[in-house]
């Protein structure tokens, strides 16, 4: 597929169960890792409930802003599975049972067991391409730049594997991590801001954590030009070395003053 520098994406997680906390979202993180590996930048993740007007509004906003929108959830057999209808409404197209989807379901379900509820999973917006999976056989679909997938993580992963090879690929992000242990963020914040201003094409962040009874700071530089990332990392390492040397000098001075 074609490659360009920036391919962008958003994930729309759909389901009341996610918002209530009953079900923990395991899909957006997996999709983020998957997309990063093929050079697609995940720029936004939204979580919304099973409310059709809200799904329609979110889909239309996101698909206008990003190259791809991935949705998860709401394409099962129950009354609250309304994602397919919402997507059809967002695109202004009809929706009906798709013979291709019925054929897929019959690979897993006996004809006499294909009741009305299960047939709901064969309702597909007109003009959509099916996204198959080898686990449940109930398909997702792809319409425009919106890819609609199941909420069950194993099925979502199977669907993503099907669409992945068809996605446009971007330049992969290069990342460098620099440890800033024993240096508080407040000490290097100003210098780090200077490095960030000098490198507007890069993403530079400081990420503190607390472990083993103390703070552990890590600075991460991300970008698509390896040389720029490397140069910024060298500048940050020099900044930290200067701060460490300055602190060591202050400690030596204090020791001398006590003698």
Automatic annotation (TrEMBL):
Any idea where the MoaB/Mog domain is? 10-170
The record's section on Gene3D superfamilies has:
MoaB/Mog-like domain (3.40.980.10)
Q: Which Pfam families match?
A: FLAD1_M, MoCF_biosynth
Q: Which residues form a coiled coil?
A: none
Looking at the record's lineage, which domain of life comes first? Bacteria
InterPro entries documented for this protein: CinA, FLAD1_M, MoaB/Mog-like_dom_sf, MoaB/Mog_dom
SUPFAM superfamilies the UniProt entry points to: Molybdenum cofactor biosynthesis proteins (SSF53218)
Spell out the protein name for this chain: Molybdopterin binding domain protein
